[in-house]
């Protein structure tokens, strides 16, 4: 089984290293193609306006681009065979609710999804103290399940690990995306030269939604597994819009 590993925290990130260690020695052919530096919150950006440089390093292929560039370069150039699964992460920090739209970690999985390759995005809620080895072992189990079950539909799993040791997580739970209610802020300050600058931030998020949301499960100390797809059409709004008299805005 060919497994492509990538992330958005860069090829030197601890989470990617833990993932590689957790998946090694399991009859899996691992290839790492990852950004050469941190690319968090780059979402699904692809580099079209300049050339990409790709270095073959002891840690894997280091790309001076985004996570999406990495998947693109791997599938269309670097890899001799198409990967059977793309695993992205383990991200330093959660990717829950609407935050999946900012995430480079999840975007790499979306890119695989678009190419018809099953994908798993992995995120550690606790940026520093998480049980990385436990998360990587669980990721290996998910890869094995994908190999066994061979789901007919293209599958993208967004996985978030709670804080605390893996021994307390229990079996992963299937969830839906929750809705974040940030206390968003634009923090204004003054730089040493007297010029104002701004920093996008916010306090710890709270969330809305039931017990089956990703937020609720991770908060409860469990591993959240949310299947995602890119079918963005709003069917109920489409049905409603069909009733509108759009001849009034057309020529
Ligand atoms: Mn990241």
Helix share bin: 25-40%
Give the percentage of residues in beta strands: 25-35%
Could you give the distance between the termini? 55 Å
Rg value: 20 Å
**Sheet having the most strands:** 9 strands, mixed
Could you say which structural class the secondary elements and strand pairing correspond to? alpha/beta
List low-confidence stretches: none
Helical stretch tally: 6
Order of helices and strands: EHEEEHEHEHEEEEEEHEH
Q: Give the strand line-up of the largest sheet.
A: 3-4-2-1-5-6-7-13-8
Small-molecule components bound: manganese (II) ion
Averaging pLDDT over every residue, what do you get? 95
Assembly annotation: single chain
Which descriptor suits the 3D outline? Answer: globular
Total beta strands: 13
Structure, described:
With 251 residues, the protein is of the alpha/beta class. It contains 6 helices and 13 strands. The chain has helices at 14-23, 67-78, 104-114, 132-149, 214-219, 235-241, and strands at 2-6, 29-35, 54-57, 60-63, 85-92, 119-124, 156-161, 173-174, 179-181, 184-190, 196-202, 206-208, 224-227. The strands form 3 sheets. It has a 9-stranded mixed β-sheet with strand order 3-4-2-1-5-6-7-13-8, sandwiched between helices. The protein binds manganese (II) ion.
Task: Describe this structure in a few short sentences.
The chain has helices spanning 14-23, 67-78, 104-114, 132-149, 214-219, 235-241, and strands spanning 2-6, 29-35, 54-57, 60-63, 85-92, 119-124, 156-161, 173-174, 179-181, 184-190, 196-202, 206-208, 224-227. With 251 residues, the protein is α/β, with parallel strands linked by helices. The relative contact order is 0.14.
